[in-house]
Amino acid sequence: MIKEGNTVHLKGKKNSFFIKVEKDKIFSTHKGNIDLNQLIGKKFGDIIQTHTGEKFFVLKPTLFEIIMYGIKRQTQIIYPKDSAFITLKLGITDGMKVLESGVGSAALTIVMANAVKPTGKIYAFEREEKYIKQAYENLKLANLDKFVEIKHQSLEEKLPEDFFDTGFIDVREPWLYIENIKNSLKNGAAIGFLVPTTNQVSMTLTALKEHNFLDLEVVELLERHYKPVPDRLRPEDRMVAHTGYLIFAKKGF
Ligand SMILES: C[S@@+](CC[C@H](N)C(=O)[O-])C[C@H]1O[C@@H](n2cnc3c(N)ncnc32)[C@H](O)[C@@H]1O
Q1: Is the bond into 235 cis (omega within 30 degrees of 0)?
Q2: Torsion of CA 78, 79, 82, 88, to 10 degrees
C-alpha cells in the first residue's frame, strides 16, 4: 500500500515523474494535474489518471532511477556504474561503519546507505554547509536518511580514530588528508577514492605509498549503451566517455 511520504515513479507512455506522495497536493504535468490524494492506498502497478484523463502507472522507483532521475544534483555525482562497483569492492554490508567525504548530492551515499541498513551507518563529512540540506532531501527521497549522519566538517579536521570498517573519498585533493583517513580506519580496512584526472591519481598513489597502504589498485569503468533495434544493433553515437578513476587500497602497518 502506498502511504504519504513514499516516493513513486509515475510512468506514462512518454513521460516519467519521480515524486514524494503528499496529502492535499496537486502535481502539475503538461498532460494535466494529478491530485496526490488519489495515490494514497494504491498498490504499485495500479493506474491513475490526470484531470485530462492521461494515464500513468504507479511504480516503485529503483535506487538507480532515484539517483539518475529523482535527486537534485548540486555537484558532480558518482554514477551507478561506479557506485555499485565501489560498494561491492569495499565489501559494504549490513552493520558496517563507513566513512564518506564529501557528500555533494549524496548519490554515492544513497547506494552505500542501502548496503549498510538496517544496523550500519554512513558517517559522511562535508566541508560546504550549503550542500547538506539538499543531500538529506535526496536521502529522504530514497528513504535512507536514517542510516546516514552528515557532519559539517572538512577532512582537514581530526576524524574518530580506529573507527571505520571502510570508507570512500570523493574530494578534489584526497592526498592532503591521507594520514587523517588512515588513522580513522581499522587495521586492514579497505578505502576507495574517485578523482577525475590522471595527475590526481598519481598524487593520491604517492601519498598512499608514503603511508604504507597495501593492495593499491586503479580502475576506470566504461559503460556503452546500444540502440535497441534488433536488425540494426549498434552502439549509441554518443557516450559518457569519462567519469572518474577509482583507486582502492587497504590500511597497512
Ligand atoms: C564531487 S562532490 C561529491 C559527490 C558525491 N560523491 C555524490 O555522489 O553525490 C565533492 C564534494 O566534496 C566536498 N569537499 C571537498 N573538499 C572537502 C574536504 N576537504 N572535506 C570535506 N568535504 C570536501 C565538496 O564540498 C563537494 O561537496
Answers
A1: no
A2: 90
Interatomic CA distance for residues 32 and 215, integer angstroms:
56
Q: Looking at residue 31, what is its pLDDT? A: 87
Euclidean distance between CA atoms 178 and 167, whole angstroms: 12
As assigned by CATH, the class of the 7-59 domain is alpha beta
What is the rounded average pLDDT of the residues 79-100?
98
Here the cell at position 231 is 536488425
* Distance separating alpha carbons of residues 63 and 79, to the nearest angstrom: 11
Options 3.30.70.2470, 3.40.50.300, 2.40.10.10, 3.40.50.150; CATH for 66-250 is 3.40.50.150
Rounded Cα distance between 106 and 167, Å, is 14
What pTM, to 2 d.p., does this model score?
Answer: 0.93
Compute the distance from residue 172 Cα to the ligand 1 centre, in Å.
7
Ligand 1 neighbour 185 (Cβ under 6 A)? no
Question: Pocket of ligand 1, candidates 74, 153, 170: which has the most ligand atoms within 8 Å of its Cβ, to mutate?
Answer: 170
Say how far apart CA 199 and CA 159 lie, in whole Å.
26
* pLDDT score, position 68: 95
